[in-house]
Amino acid sequence: MKKSLIALAVLAASGAAMAQSSVTLYGVLDIGFGKVKDGKWGMNNGEGYAGTQDGFNSTSVIGFRGTEDLGGGLKANFNLQSGGLDLSTGGTSVAFSREAWVGLEGAGWGAIQLGRSSSIGAKVMGAYDFNGTSYSSAYDRAGISAVTWYGSSRRSSQLQYTSPNFGGVVVRAGFTAKGDEGGVQGIGVPDASKNRYSLGATFANGPLSVSAIAETKSAEGLRTAYAVGVSYDLSVVKLAATYNRRERDGDLTRNYNTFSAGGAAGSGGQLAGGKGWTLAAVAPFGPANVGVAYARNTEADIQALELFANYALSKRTRLYIDFAKGYDQNAITAVNANGRGLASANPYAVGVGVVHTF
Q1: For 35-56, what is each residue's pLDDT tens digit?
Q2: I want to staple 125 with a disulfide (CB 3.0 to 4.6 A). Which of 105, 146, 156, 338 is the partner?
Q3: What is the pTM of this model?
Q4: According to the UniProt entry, where is the signal peptide (predicted)?
């Protein structure tokens, strides 16, 4: 009897310890058919990225996230997320290049993350792109998406802070030391590199959401990027407008030949710099949503249009159709004498598919 009681006590203690810690496997799987102008319909075709076959609407990813209760309202969190899944072939390059961080969270003071994580721009301004950061995003096609400043929605070697919700206001801040902007362990860092700071805030109250974000330049020759956004939900339709100035100006010749996505000399990265505005609307029809977005890059003389619709089969599975028309910053073949991008060889693309999350 005594042995049984001891065994039960040990089991109960073990269960309590396990209840304080959890690890979750999660993922997003997107596959469908698509095409670009002059191209052929094919599975996971449709994106303008050379050599890339990924979901047209969402990036297919797999990841692990976990949390541990440290007591006193303090928690330890982590997230490891890998992209590079091609469902058309089953090919993958498992590297946690999308999320790779560890952090601490407290009920009274907010949360910090250390490592590679989504940028402040992506977290603050992503909500105003109603179809997400899909390939068809008019904001990204025009080169004025705050989500893809520096050619990426992620930041490496970042210290990031998120405040608690103060009456609808959430503040986010990020810092990357110039020693992490190049070189190895801070050795051989270009003289032009700078510490990078990000600061953003969102006020959300009922149907209204207002946000602002700024990110300082990571190197000489770039500039501070900033964006503001507002959305309002009228129930029958949700509207959004943003204004954005990227870290590069609209001179595509300089952008392509001098700066990569990270701001260093070398490859072109995402080519479109500039500044401009966007308008978007999305309307619910039961389990379906239909939307439109328009973006105008006034500095680089670029405009783009996006049409999209999706139908939820469940909370985790939906069908979609996305259409993008306009400039494709990943398919530039030349620039004219004024540094403006010539018309892309693929001025429109369309994708039809299914997204499953788990």
Answers
A1: 887 778 888 776 654 445 667 8
A2: 146
A3: 0.83
A4: 1-19
